[in-house]
Amino acid sequence: MKDKFIENLEKKVLNFINTESLINERDSILICISGGSDSFALAEVLSTLSPHYNSNIHLLYVDHHVRQNTEEEKSLIKEYADRKNIPFTILNIYPDNLTEKTLREERYKIIEEFAQKNGFTRIALGHTLDDNIETILMNFLRGYGLEGLIGIPPKRDKIIRPILVLTKKETAEYCNKKEIKYKEDFTNYLPITLRNRVRYQLIPFLRDIIEQFPQSLMNQKIILNWDQELIKNISKEYSNKYIKSNMDGFEVNYNDWNNIPDAIKVRILKNIFNNMGEIITIEGLIYLMNKLSKIRKTGNIATMNTIKIYKHENTVYFIKKTLEENYEYTLPIPGSLKLPSGYEIITEIIEDNKESINFNDLWHVYFDYDKIEVDKLKVRNWREGDKIKPFGLKGKSKKLQDLFIDKKIPKWKRLEIPIIFWENEILWVVGIARSNIAPITENTKRILHIMVKKEV
Known about the structure:
Layout: H1 4-19, E1 28-32, H2 37-53, E2 56-63, H3 70-84, E3 88-92, H4 100-117, E4 122-124, H5 129-142, H6 145-148, E5 155-156, E6 159-160, H7 168-177, H8 194-209, H9 215-242, E7 244-245, E8 249-253, H10 254-258, H11 262-275, H12 282-292, E9 299-304, E10 307-312, E11 315-320, E12 328-330, E13 335-338, E14 343-351, E15 364-368, E16 377-380, E17 387-388, E18 398-399, H13 400-406, H14 411-414, E19 419-422, E20 425-429, E21 433-434, E22 446-454
Parallel strand pairs: 1-2, 1-4, 2-3, 4-6
Antiparallel strand pairs: 5-6, 7-8, 8-11, 9-10, 10-11, 12-16, 13-14, 14-22, 15-22, 16-19, 17-18, 19-20, 20-21
């Protein structure tokens, strides 16, 4: 007869999986296992429940090479995997100069790469109810706002946390009743990290003074999650309406920005930074919100990591930081060249096929190949005093600075625009103006085609 505790625990996890839609029919599940009671409980319960979903499972251990006893952990897992006939893989990370944060990021990265390469549709992690409570309290103490008070999500993309409803006491008892050997990391008991101090000092204190703790905290989490979903949806509506993406980042009309509620602004800023490959801290958000509330004229607002926030006329731009140094490269013909500013220049030679030319495309330009010393063609960024002889000015020159002003090109963008030149003559200011040098005529035999792409 099946033990009642085991039966109830597995039923609780099954209900949680179904309620949160964590596993689909025929999912292939990669179970991340460390050797502790939580991850062994995760492996055992998913091994038991996998027939419900016709799913297959695979165990994965990541060795960081920073802790003692990893050999003992690997031995325990291999013994378990062999006994249960579950495939088992070990991946290694060699820390070198990695911090705890970057080590964790590297761990997630190699796990996701392994899952992608081997066709796993789910990655199961062994976070528990205790982990969630600790995370919520830590986020509160660190001032992480509403999103932080929601805690650990049951699901994010491929990642699932099926035992988020179990306590550590339950996972340990489950392993003991199932006669599964496990090895707890002794550093989990040392009061050297914020998490351990929350676990062994703050939580016992809260249990002492609040009779309903931690259930009261989890009830609040449910309510806050509803609030967060509402604000998230409203934020999306505001973003779709007011925030525009461009080739360099994002932009917003300043009058529109001032009409957006602050709670929504904060979420929009976080999304902008995330989409541009950066993470903005709480302190950074407060600082930037304050700066954006006081803009009076055109100019730089702030530079944060690789993102520059700039106001030009009545528009605020969020862009990748402008190049600080000048650059200059010889153009390969034919061939391609990637520039530090994110542009790619592609060149080709066309043998007398004028019919295929579109002179109205700002990202393509055409020259009479035989009227230019192509081996001297170069590309660089703008320099003070640059001039071009564009079509329509009858051979007269125009300063690029005046051209930029006419075209309303913001100052921050000017250094990023590639300039194609030959000796002392500028042939093309990419996307803006072409010179009158070497035009295509009825006598042209070979055409030099230059086109430019910009990484978005």
